[in-house]
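Example 9 (inverse folding). The structure is encoded as follows.
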């Protein structure tokens, strides 16, 4: 049960992070409309690299997804710390990335403990 719950939480957090970053750049943030495509390319493409493996539940992809999510933890924290106008945007990014880090780590650990052998 806890393995299934941590898997579901990691998927929701990772896909939520992808959607949040895209929403932030296109609608909510103060990105100049001439630079939206560049910002999407720079901020969303790292999240898409391990996505196939994250969806499949592969351990290496989950670990790579966690390493990628660390960048968004730092970015969200920096925005929340330095920009009062966009603090709430950074806090949501920070929360989603930390939720993925914890859930993916627990999923990998609990699944390894439950494996026979």
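The amino acid assigned to each position is listed next.
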């Amino acid at each position: 049960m806890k393995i299934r719950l941590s898997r579901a939480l990691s998927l929701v957090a990772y896909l939520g992070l992808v959607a949040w970053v895209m929403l932030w750049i296109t609608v909510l943030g103060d990105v100049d409309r001439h630079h939206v495509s560049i910002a999407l390319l720079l901020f969303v493409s790292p999240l898409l690299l391990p996505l196939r493996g994250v969806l499949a539940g592969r351990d290496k992809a989950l670990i790579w997804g966690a390493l990628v999510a660390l960048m968004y933890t730092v970015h969200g924290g920096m925005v929340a710390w330095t920009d009062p106008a966009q603090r709430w945007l950074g806090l949501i990014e920070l929360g989603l990335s930390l939720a993925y880090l914890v859930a993916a780590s627990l999923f990998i650990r609990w699944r390894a403990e439950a494996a026979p052998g």
